[in-house]
Design a protein that fits this description.
With about 350 residues, the protein is α+β, with helices and mostly antiparallel strands. The protein is built from 10 helices and 15 strands.
Length: about 350
């Protein structure tokens, strides 16, 4: 079972038999770190020359979003398909963000790649910051007037779903070419609609019975006296899930005595890997249970969870207060503290 991460989910598209698959990226990067390597999803790392230039070559079967970064930076994203690219990149230290950002300030190449890079630049600047929804609406409306069949559109729509809102996003989906409406990104958007309807209707997180690390049955209903419950879906082979464990440990150490409980639900199909990850990450202090059915696990299906990590924050009555899906909303320490201080 391979876990999917929240960073970026790649769109699966049908390749044309016999079509050109090769790409070449001629790049130049301005760095604020001492990093000498540039990495692209699916390709070997390449060395940055003293003048900042680099070149990446490879093959891509299906047009898709690819991550690009240095050894010192967080990942940026480009649309990757066969063809020749010329890119200008930079590492950026932003005062409002932790770490180093990777930005592609200029891209010349396939038309969809240029359009997607312009979209990334709009996202970087916060769609004008002022009146984001209106700006994002105008941008997507203009894109769909240019083309309603570009494979970049589902990815773009999912990226701005939080800004546009469900109703507007749904209207844009209706304008897509028929072949795009079955795209995995659109399926995730539709799943989020269904999840929100389920939560609105039921309010309380559904009870479940799963085996814990001692092979005993644990049920959510057995938790009592907890003012806040964080439900965390993860797996041992999900790197972003495990990268988040230090933060969860900090929260638990700070708030467990004040009424916080964490329930980590693994979807590992290997008990050995699951238990080893718990030991290695030191997360055995809170509730750990497993449903070994992967993405076919009952709760994954019931709540339309398409990737991990994925979290729900519940109150003392097990009502769902917030959903952290790394797309629409994020659960923060302030959110936990707010529930505990009620």
């Amino acid at each position: 079972m391979k876990a999917l991460s929240f960073t970026i989910l790649l769109s699966a598209l049908t390749a044309t038999p016999g079509a050109q698959k090769t790409f070449t990226i001629h790049g130049s990067i301005s760095r604020v770190t001492k990093s000498k390597i540039v990495r692209l999803t699916g390709s070997n790392p390449v060395t940055v020359q003293p003048d900042g230039s680099f070149e990446i070559t490879g093959e891509v079967d299906n047009p898709t979003v690819a991550l690009i970064m240095t050894d010192s930076s967080q990942a940026g994203a480009i649309w990757l398909e066969p063809g020749n690219y010329s890119v200008q990149c930079e590492e950026i230290k932003r005062p409002d963000h932790k770490g180093i950002s990777f930005r592609t300030t200029s891209l010349q190449g396939p038309a969809d790649a240029e359009r997607y890079n312009d979209f990334q630049e709009q996202m970087y600047t916060g769609f004008g910051m002022v009146d984001q929804k209106a700006h994002a609406f105008r941008y997507m409306d203009s894109m769909l007037k240019i083309t309603n069949s570009s494979p970049i559109l589902p990815t773009m729509l999912r990226s701005v779903q939080r800004i546009l809102g469900n109703d507007t996003t749904h209207l844009f989906i209706q304008r897509l070419a028929p072949e795009l409406k079955n795209n995995p990104e659109i399926a995730m958007i539709e799943g989020s609609f269904k999840r929100k309807e389920k939560i609105k209707k039921e309010k309380v997180f559904e009870n479940f019975d799963l085996k814990n690390i001692g092979d005993s049955s644990f049920s959510l209903s057995s938790l009592s006296g907890k003012k806040a419950i964080l439900i965390d879906f993860w797996a041992s082979d999900c790197a972003p899930c495990r990268m988040a464990h230090p933060q969860l440990k900090q929260w638990y150490a700070k708030y467990a005595q004040k009424g916080l409980e964490i329930v980590s639900i693994s979807i590992d199909d290997s008990k050995e890997k699951w238990l080893k990850a718990i030991r290695d990450d030191g997360i055995g202090n809170w509730v750990n249970v497993c449903d070994p059915k992967g993405f076919n696990a009952t709760l994954m299906q019931d709540y339309y969870i398409p990737y991990i990590p994925f979290r729900f924050l519940l109150d003392e009555n097990k009502n769902i207060v917030l959903v952290d899906n790394a797309q629409d909303t994020w659960i923060t320490e302030k959110d936990i503290a707010a529930i505990l201080n009620k």
